[in-house]
Amino acid sequence: MTTSPITTSVFDLFKVGPGPSSSHTIGPMKAAFDFRQRIAHLSIDIQQQAEAIHIHLYGSLSATGKGHGTDRAIVAGLMGWQPETTDPVALLKLLRDPTIVYPVPIGNHTINLSPQHIHFERVRYDSPYHNTMVLKLTSGDQTLTEQEYYSIGGGFIIRKGEPEIVPGSLSVPYPYGTMAELKAQLTTHTITLDELMMANEMALTGRSRMEVNQRLDQILAFMHKAVRRGLKHKGILPGSIRLSRKAPILFQQAKGMSQSSDSFLIFLNAYCLAASEENAAGGIVVTAPTSGASGVIPGLTYLAKHHFHYDRPILRAGMLAAAAIGFLVKHNASISGAEMGCMGEVGTASAMGAAFLTRCTQSIANIGPIEAAAEIGIEHHLGMTCDPIGGYVQIPCIERNAMGAVKAYNAFLLATSGAASYQKISLDSVIKVMKATGRDMSTKYKETSEAGLALSATEC
């Protein structure tokens, strides 16, 4: 093996939680919950001295954290809430009244948390990741204990000082770190992509084949519930932009155009907007691979189920193919908007969606067209900025999910036209280009709301 193997579970990539941003809500909520657990194990002497918890946010967590609800997510995590079981309505109510305090248990007493304990730092912080948060348990001016966390996209977090996973310490039967290595495994062992992904998932999680399939069905159900909610909910999205929901209008329009060739695209747009608008409203969505891109895969899978009438086994196979692509991007570049711009979020989702569609149309997985579809999906999102107006995951994010899904569909068409073997650029190559592009991109265009469309806020 020339690279460290991918040891990410499908269900770490597809996570259930509240919107609007996996790196700004799900990640910080998980970090705050982890901090809560750690202070619960401190000595009684230290616990008795504790008077306050202070949270310091840096990078994009500071720049757009208010609009993304990072402060609410942190309060929720410190109170013991976890993403999948969070009540989104209750989450949106947190911190509305600045006079309300939130009790956090520390040993045999509680300390109160309020907005003044959350610090949106504007200074540059020496950190290996853009999205950094430091939580401190204090007594007066004394810091009793602190932890530093990095939110690296898609709800994934890293704690500073946490032992790194040594390559090979987590064993999978078919290790790979690149598409070239994945294809080599398929050839060497004469297995399909479905079989490889399932075997690795079972080894990583200890789940049986039936349990993996059941969880895939649950993930799809969460996605499709978000779509259905979004198709029904009307009105104005939260935040100062006062953006109106469009999904229900598009859905009704599509139903009235059933004889038109355009109805297919309008249905797809409606489904993607529906899930994205639910995410923007703080509803429960699935990271695919992030919350900011949580409309692409749900829209495409909803279309595949209700218009193409694919059955559960086909949808599961498509989801595993999508996960394989998401793993490769996360492993070799990043799915974080703060690291890659929106090509890391919607670009990856579009590539995953193209792989999903390509796999669904095959009787047996053929890796060539799947790779070509994913490569095309990423290639035509290179350089895409992340410049949300007001820090809200609304403009351009919601429509961008619909555009990403349409690009995914076109990438699928191009890759399955019989010319996949003519593709000159490999997926590994385009992921390398993606990483380099993200590294070269100005920070102003990476989820900080300091440039681009974000400067149009005064016009809204």
Question: Could you describe the 3D structure shown?
Answer:
The chain folds into 2 domains: 10-14 and 172-459, no CATH class; 21-159, 60s Ribosomal Protein L30, Chain: A, CATH 3.30.1330. The protein is α+β, with helices and mostly antiparallel strands. The mean pLDDT is 93. It has helices at residues 10-13, 22-40, 44-49, 60-63, 65-68, 70-78, 88-93, 179-189, 193-205, 209-232, 247-255, 263-280, 296-306, 312-332, 337-340, 346-360, 367-379, 397-415, 427-440; strands spanning 16-18, 52-58, 102-106, 109-113, 118-120, 132-139, 142-151, 157-159, 284-286.
Number of domains: 2
Helix proportion: 40-55%
Strand order of the largest sheet: 5-2-6-7-8
Question: Pairing-aware structural class of the strands and helices?
Answer: alpha+beta
Unreliable spans:
none
Largest sheet: 5 strands, mixed
How many individual helices? 19
In whole angstroms, the N-to-C terminal distance is 52 Å
User: Can you give the mean pLDDT?
Assistant: 93
Q: What is the succession of H and E elements? A: HEHHEHHHHEEEEEEHHHHHEHHHHHHH
**Strand percentage:** 5-15%
Radius of gyration, rounded? 22 Å
DSSP, total strands: 9
State the shape: globular
Question: What key attributes describe this structure?
Answer:
460 residues; alpha+beta; five-stranded mixed β-sheet; 49% helix
